[in-house]
Amino acid sequence: MANTQQIIGTWILLFIYAGFILYFVIKGALKTKSISDYAVGTINFSPAFVGFSLAVSMTSAATFIINPGLIAVYGISGVLSFGIFFPLATMISLVVLTKSFRKFGQTVKALTLADWIGIRYKSKGFALFMAFLSFLLITFIVLILVAITKVISKALNANETMVLILIIVFVFGYMMFGGANSLVYTNSIQAVIMLIVAVILLFSGYEYFKDGISGIFDKLTLIDPNLAKLTNPKSVLFRDYFEIIFVQLIVGFAVVCQPHIITKSFFLKEEKDVNKFLTTAILAEILFFSVAFVGIYARLTFPDLMANGVALKTDGIIPAYVVQVFSQGCLPIVIGLIVIMGLISAGLSTLEGLIQSLSTTITSDIIKPLFGNKIKKEKSYIIINRFAIVLLAIISFYVSLEQLRNPKLSVAILAQNGVYAYFSVAFAPILFGVFFKKGGIKAPLIASLTALTTHFSIYYLLPFLVAKYGFDFGWFTKYLEGSVRNPAIASATAILLSTLVGGIFLLLNKDEHE
User: Fold this and answer.
1) 297, 351, 303, 353: which is closest to 326 by C-alpha?
2) pTM of the predicted model as reported, rounded to 2 decimal places
3) Higher-confidence position of 30 and 430
4) How many angstroms separate the CA atoms of 348 and 336, rounded?
């Protein structure tokens, strides 16, 4: 539980932080005259600023709060998965895909990922399909809202429902006006805070290194031998090397195929800025992903996953760790408040990007093609965009409330199932669109449909067949059992199968891409 000094300090910092954000939102809103301005901005941003914006959009509350919580529950195996192999694939993918994706997007003036796909394959229907699928990303919004709510409610000893309402009203409210022009500035501030907090968190467990790395493994072994193993057969996410390494490399490579991530490069006005943009983003990412190890500190701090006699939920472990470690003395409390701001920043940075990209997709890729002949004024789309944000806020509130009250292990399971499904579907069209300049629509469309069917069949249909009728899928069966399953298994399988199917169609239709 937070003490009085922590509560007062948190309130003060929240008001100061909100003031800074509103300043940049108002500044950005004054330059936003059209939906295009909202989507990609009118300002010539520094590539370093955009790089920071990308870094914070990719790491979010999942990296700083949710994933370390899962690592606290399952141990070293989680560090390998979330802290090494997933980030490695992500950063490689970022370099491989970003340049070509941006070059084509800039040429045709694409605003969103769905827009890019529609223009690339000359298909409004394909763009509309991807636009509707983007609603799956609401699950990621929910993850962030739950994470921020956990942090603030623990720091203020406040009711989670009330905190959730305040967060939604504030964040969705200011995102109705700012858009890209304010997003890069707020993300840059958040990135600086997150860089400082990442360092603080990584050093917060220095005392556990008194006996070296081997000492940490020994302490984990005393709590539970599985925590110190490279694989954890008792977990639902890190059971073997296939799940920890192979699956995370596949998913990590595809994860950049999300609208709030891959379209960041559209903010750059000059081709020469891309290398600096990528370098800044990757260096920041390396530090951010290192925060995964803080989950180990948290488990050593709460060996029985209890705080003040109360069992900790997975998503509340890191907020409880921060309140516990930085609760005594003036300086630790001040540092703790900075960390709390960093955790909030980690969430808000991605949340802003998601709201901006999703609302733009709804407006530009759904409303405009379906009802554009009835909407004559460009300003009307700004108003529609604001209504889209209100809709997102309402849906996000109800789903987040359910996750706060009745999570299945962690909100990460819900978020991964939705987000992973989306980028599994988007991966092949982006990959083929980048490397086969004249390719037709057949291969990417069939690949996308294959990915969508495969992902949800593996996550829902096959487990039903196993539980209800005792179907046996050999070694793969263990990934289909239980009420909580790993969405990365479904996603990696969908990505591989859809890319294979799409590749076969490319070979069978060589004349379309020669």
Assistant:
1) 297
2) 0.90
3) 430
4) 18
Q: Which tokens go with 312?
A: 């900790």
Distance CA 220, CA 239 (A): 17
pLDDT digits (tens, 9 = 90+) for 223-273: 999 999 999 999 999 999 999 999 999 999 999 888 777 777 777 777 788
Confidence of residue 24 (pLDDT cuts 50, 70, 90): confident
Please check whether residue 283 is in contact with residue 70, taking contact to mean a CB–CB distance below 8 angstroms: no
Structure tokens at 351: 């949340």
What confidence score (pLDDT) does residue 449 get?
A: 97
Neighbours of 68 (CB within 10 A): 28
Contact 277, 53 (CB under 8 A): no
Of 398, 345, 368, 407, the C-alpha closest to 171 is 345
Q: Which structure tokens are listed for 65?
A: 């709060």
Q: What is the mean pLDDT of residues 170-186?
A: 76
Least confident of 89-103, 292-306, 385-399, 463-477: 89-103
Residue 457 is encoded by which pair of tokens? 């069949």
Distance CA 251, CA 248 (A): 5
Per-residue model confidence as pLDDT tens digits over 399-457: 999 999 988 888 999 999 999 999 999 999 999 988 887 778 999 999 999 999 999 99
Q: Which tokens go with 472?
A: 């046996």
Distances (CA, A) of 333 to 61, 90, 283, 340, 499: 22, 35, 29, 10, 51
Q: 117 and 429 in contact (C-beta within 8 Å)?
A: yes
Q: Which residue did the predictor score with more confidence, 140 or 188?
A: 140
Class of CATH domain 4-37+46-512: mainly alpha
What's the CA gap between 237 and 416, in Å, rounded?
12
Q: State the average pLDDT for the chain.
A: 87
Amino acid at 297: Y
HSE (CB half, 13 Å, CA atoms) of 144? 30
Q: Are 428 and 126 in contact (CB under 8 A)?
A: no
Tell me how many degrees the CA angle 391-397-399 measures, rounded to the nearest 5. 105
Q: How far is Cα 144 from Cα 155, in angstroms, rounded to an integer? A: 17
Rounded distance between C-alpha atoms, residue 250 and residue 491, angstroms: 9
Identify the CA nearest to 307 among candidates 323, 320, 298: 320
DSSP character at residue 312: P
From CA 340, how far away is CA 323, in angstroms rounded? 9
Domain ranges (residues) in the chain? 4-37+46-512
CB neighbours of residue 476 within 10 Å: 14
> Structure tokens of 70?
């899962």
Measured between alpha carbons, how far is 194 from 212 in angstroms, rounded to an integer?
27
Closest CA to 187 of 389, 24, 385: 24
Tell me, what's the pLDDT at 375? 80
**Which CA distances in Å does 452 have to 111, 196, 468?**
24, 39, 23
Report the chain's C-alpha Rg in angstroms.
22
Q: If you ran DSSP here, which 8-state letter would residue 469 be given?
A: H
By CB atoms closer than 10 A (0-12, 13-18, 19+), residue 415 is buried
